[in-house]
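I'd like us to work through together how a protein chain folds, taking it slowly. To get us started, please write out a protein record for me. Go ahead whenever you are ready, and we will take it from there:
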Amino acid sequence: MSATFYYLWSTGGGLLSDLYMLILIINIIMVISIIFFERKKPSAALLWVAVLLFIPVFGFVAYLIFGQTIYKERIFKIKEDDDRRIREIISRQLAMVKSIQFLPGEKAGDYNRMREMLLATNYATITGDNEVEIYTEGEKKFEALIDAINSAEESINFQYYIIRNDELSKRIVSALTEKARQGVKVRVLGDAVGCHRLPRNFFRELKDAGGETAFFFRSKYIHINMRINYRNHRKIVVIDGKTGFVGGFNVGDEYLGKGPLGYWRDTHLKIVGSAVYSLQARFFLDWNHAAEQDLEFFNTFYFPEMIPKEGSVMQVVSSGPDSRGEGIKMGYLQLINNATSSIYIQTPYFIPDQSLLDALTIAAESGIDVRIMFPCKPDHPFVYWAGFSYLWDLVEAGVRVYLYDRGFIHAKTIVVDGLVSSVGSANWDIRSFRLNFETNAFIYDDEVSEKLKIVFEDDLEYCTEVTCEDYYKRTHAVMFKESVSRLLSGIL
């Protein structure tokens, strides 16, 4: 017995040694790629180099799953004719932005420059005929969504990061199935990671009724997804090309407050107007990639003519690893830099890069009322404690930080001066800015923005403010969790 064990150990040891050397050689090649080709942020690059060289086996597996870069050439190819028509629209709007002020007062010029930047770099067309409704509770949001689905006459394009296998999801899929039976064109797009727990037959009745489904970055291998690090985090619904939904809610009972985190506080928008064209176009790009189809842009069936009217001015901004730049983050930076009196931010995750930290610090130290609302409980512990470590830096700079005690706050919003705001799927973290596919609405309307500011102020009733004194009272265990989590924040 002992001789057999010795033989297996000795031969296995040799194989393991050879495998170890092979992994080390591959890791060195990865390190060269990181340094010379992938152009990662220096902090993330140094962390990956250290992990690959000093913890080779773990680093090899971790890099395959979390470290690979999707290169900047566009993943989604717009056909030449569509691309040309989009560029024509952008050129006309750029000329218009230079000559028209969309907001009253001295700050209008600053926001014109912001709109011009998002238009030129992100194809974020400007529309001014939008009706906007704000939802902060799941019951009202999903009732409005189901009502919109039930009223659909021609098409429903439905995209969420997470769709659960539970009562709410089944209710919504049942409504979608009924519309498909009536001849409405129904498409459902989920994220392969966010929807990985769905049973394979979950959409069977919908597909039998004529509906279509697809999953973004679905793996060809069972239980292994080499693109797990790149998630389509968007939440977009477009009804008949006229009514759109965008924001933070996913689909599941927990978003009605029935999950382990208790009451769920989020923010979502219902939009009626030309901004829906941008949501529809974004859905088309994602669908064409995931379903390997070629839905045609500028088809009047999906992009119907709108009746001209006055409304909220808005840009829909999307970003992701395929984007030219970090469009949503750049929009956030512009909003912060343009602030004159107040900046109100709500986010469940807060892992900013140095540019955002500096911008918020400068704003607070310049006398601007900067407030950040953050959950009092974690749903992802490492991300939560990393976020806290950055928030303490801002508290010392004069930013007021509030912990939401009522349940879990998942809203992703910013309101500046009660004048301009943004609502969408993007968290205030590096993952949302660089790795996830996200969509936000930037709203240049004092009425809508003031409503969002009031929502923030009403939420303060359920918050506890953290202070510098709280920072110095932290236990060693908390400090350890914050330090370790912050060290890993570049790759969380």
